[in-house]
Design brief:
single chain, alpha+beta, four-stranded antiparallel sheet
C-alpha cells in the first residue's frame, strides 16, 4: 500500500524513509509515498526583489545565500537560517562589513544595494562625514595613530579606523577671541592669538576658547597666576583689554543678593564695579521696651580698594550688611519705641557712618536711609500704625499752619511794599509838581519883567511903575473874566465890585465914570 500526496505550486514534500534517508519532491503534482516513510509538506522560499536568504546544510554546516527575485527549493538536508532585506545604502552612507570566516572588515560606500554573503556580519548603515570648510574630524587607526581630516570633503573612515569626538568646528581667532591649546606630546599649554581659522594638529587639544576681557573705566578684575599671586587690572590702565594668560584663573567671589544677605542667593562676581550703588537690606531688631521691629534700609556704598576687598572678605555686600545690622541692633536696644520713631534715620546713620570696619575691607558706606519698618507682632504693628498716623496728622497740621502763616506774611509783606511804592509815587509827583510850578513861575516872572521893562521904558509913552503894575493887574482880571465868560460858569458881583472893576478897567482920569 502507498499514500498519495498532492502538492501545489511552490510546495515541496520532504520524505524521510524508514531507514532515515531524506529526499524531496517539488510541486506541483501528486506523489505516492511508502507508508513506512514519514512526510512533511513545506513551502519553497520565495524571495522578492531586494531580499536574500541564508540557507544552511545540517549535514556539513555549510551555508549559502540566495537572492531575489527567485523561488528557492531547499535540498533534503537544508533549512532557512535567515531571510531578510538586503541593506540599501544611500549616497551619503556607508556600511561596515565583517567577514565571519577570517575577521576581515571592509566598507561598502553608497549608493548601492548590498548583497551579503553567508558569513557577513554588519550593522545599520552609517552616515559619511560631510565636512564644511571650517570643520574637521579626528581619526584614530588600528595602530593608535591619530590624523586630522579637514573639510571641504566627504569622509568615510577606513574599516578599522575610529572617529574621536565627531565633527568639530575650527576656531575663529580674531582681535577679541583666542584659543587655549594643550600639546599632548609635551604637556605644554599655549595661548594662540594669531588671527585666522585654527585647526589643531593630531596631538593638540583645545582646552577652551577665550574671549578678550575688555574693562570699562570703572571696572577692575583680579586673576591668580600659577604661583598663587594676585594681579589687579583696572579699566583706567593701559592693560584694559587682555587675554587671560595660560595657567591663570580669574578670581571670582560669590556675593549675597537676597534681601536678608543670608547667602541663600548668590551672584558670581569677577568684574568689580567701583561706581557707587544702592543695596537694600532687611533685618530684625528689638527696642528696650521689647518691641521687635523689621527694618528695611538702603545702603549707598562703593568699592574704594579692590586689593583690600579681595584680601579681607569673600562677600563684600554680606559682610557690610551684617556688620551694619550688629551696630544698629546695639543702638536700637538702648532706645524705646517712641524714641526710635522720633529720629530713626538719625539713629541708623549714626550707627553705621564713620565706622572704620568698612574702609578696612576696601568699601565705603556713603549713606544709609530707612525705607520702611514695621513691628513683627501684628497687634503691636497696629498700634504703631496708629502712632505713625497721629504723628503724620500732627505734622500735616503743622505744615498747613506754617503754609497759612507764610501766605499771611507774604500778603502783609506785599501790602508793605505797596505802601512803600505809593509813598515813592506821591513824593515823585510832588517833586514833579514843584518842578512844574517853578518852571511856570519862572516863565510868568519873565513875562512880567518883560512887560514892566516895556511899559516903563525911556520913550515918551512910558508909564509910572505903579501905574504899570495897576494896568497889569487889570489885564489879569480881564483875562479871568474872559475865561469865565467862555464857559458855563456864572459869576455874581456886588455893586462895589462892579464900580471898582469898571473904574479900574478904563482909567481915563482920576475920577471914575
Amino acid at each position: 500500500m502507498s499514500c498519495c500526496t498532492c502538492l501545489d505550486e511552490n510546495e515541496q514534500l520532504l520524505v524521510t524513509s524508514f531507514g532515515g534517508i531524506r529526499s524531496v519532491v517539488d510541486g506541483p503534482g501528486c506523489e505516492f509515498v511508502n507508508p513506512c516513510s514519514s512526510t512533511e509538506k513545506r513551502s519553497a522560499v520565495v524571495l522578492n526583489m531586494g531580499q536574500y536568504a541564508v540557507i544552511v546544510n545540517d549535514e556539513n554546516g555549510e551555508k549559502r545565500c540566495e537572492y531575489g527575485p527567485s523561488v528557492v527549493w531547499l535540498g533534503p538536508r537544508e533549512g532557512v537560517d535567515k531571510m531578510s532585506d538586503c541593506p540599501s545604502i544611500q549616497k551619503t552612507e556607508y556600511l561596515r562589513i565583517r567577514d565571519g570566516t577570517n575577521g576581515d572588515v571592509r566598507n561598502v560606500v553608497g549608493p548601492a544595494l548590498f548583497k551579503p554573503g553567508p558569513y557577513d556580519e554588519f550593522d545599520e548603515p552609517k552616515k559619511a562625514y560631510n565636512l564644511a570648510m571650517n570643520q574637521y574630524i579626528r581619526i584614530k587607526d588600528q595602530d593608535g595613530k591619530i590624523r586630522i581630516v579637514r573639510g571641504e570633503q566627504r569622509v568615510v573612515p577606513e574599516p578599522l579606523e575610529k572617529v574621536i569626538g565627531g565633527v568639530q568646528n575650527a576656531v575663529n581667532i580674531d582681535t577679541h577671541h583666542a584659543v587655549l591649546v594643550r600639546n599632548e606630546d609635551d604637556g605644554t599649554l599655549v595661548l594662540l592669538t594669531e588671527h585666522g581659522l585654527f585647526f589643531p594638529t593630531p596631538y593638540q587639544q583645545i582646552v577652551e576658547q577665550q574671549e578678550k576681557i575688555v574693562l570699562e573705566e570703572y571696572q577692575t578684575v583680579v586673576y591668580k597666576d600659577p604661583t598663587g599671586r594676585f594681579h589687579y587690572v583696572r579699566g583706567d590702565s593701559d592693560m584694559r583689554d587682555f587675554f587671560l594668560p595660560p595657567f591663570c584663573e580669574l578670581v571670582t567671589q560669590e556675593w549675597s543678593v537676597d534681601l536678608r544677605k543670608e547667602h541663600k542667593q548668590v551672584e558670581a562676581v569677577w568684574k568689580f564695579d567701583r561706581r557707587p550703588s544702592y543695596m537694600n537690606y532687611e533685618f530684625n531688631c528689638r527696642t528696650v521696651d521689647n518691641v521687635e521691629l523689621c527694618v528695611d534700609v538702603s545702603f549707598f556704598w562703593a568699592i574704594i580698594d579692590v586689593p583690600l576687598l579681595i584680601e579681607k572678605t569673600a562677600d563684600g555686600p554680606g559682610d557690610t550688611c551684617t556688620h551694619a545690622r550688629s551696630r544698629i541692633i546695639q543702638e536700637v536696644s538702648r532706645l524705646k519705641l517712641l524714641e526710635f520713631l522720633e529720629r530713626f534715620n538719625e539713629i541708623i546713620r549714626g550707627s553705621c557712618i564713620g565706622d572704620s570696619f568698612y574702609e578696612e575691607r576696601g568699601v565705603q558706606l556713603i549713606s544709609v536711609e530707612v525705607l520702611k519698618f514695621n513691628c513683627a507682632s501684628q497687634a503691636t504693628d497696629s498700634i504703631l500704625q496708629d502712632i505713625i498716623k497721629e504723628t503724620a496728622d500732627r505734622l500735616k497740621k503743622k505744615e498747613r499752619q506754617r503754609g497759612e502763616n507764610e501766605v499771611a506774611l507774604s500778603r502783609l509783606t506785599g501790602e508793605i511794599e505797596e505802601e512803600k511804592m505809593k509813598k515813592e509815587l506821591i513824593e515823585l509827583k510832588k517833586s514833579h509838581l514843584k518842578t512844574e510850578a517853578r518852571i511856570e513861575g519862572e516863565a510868568e516872572a519873565n513875562k512880567i519883567m518883560a512887560y514892566l521893562e516895556r511899559v516903563t521904558g525911556r520913550d515918551n509913552h512910558a508909564l509910572d511903575p505903579n501905574e504899570a503894575v495897576k494896568l497889569f493887574m487889570m489885564l489879569r482880571k480881564l483875562d479871568s473874566v474872559q475865561a469865565l465868560s467862555g464857559g458855563k460858569s456864572q459869576i455874581y458881583l456886588t455893586p462895589n465890585d462892579v464900580n471898582l472893576s469898571i473904574g479900574q478897567m478904563f482909567p481915563c482920569g482920576k475920577n471914575p465914570v
